[in-house]
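YhfH family protein (Cytobacillus horneckiae), 44 aa
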Amino acid sequence: MIQSIMEFFRNLPAKQCSECGKSMEEQHECYGNKCDHCLGISDL
């Protein structure tokens, strides 16, 4: 059975940091695989 493309994307698991394993908030323009904490990024 073929599912709709929207259903496919809704069912994907949350992206996880490759270093610490925490769930990451994905951004459409970012292909990074480490969270801000592991990258050493702090709020401006």
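The two ends are 47 Å apart (CA to CA). Helices lie at 5-10, 36-39. ok done for today
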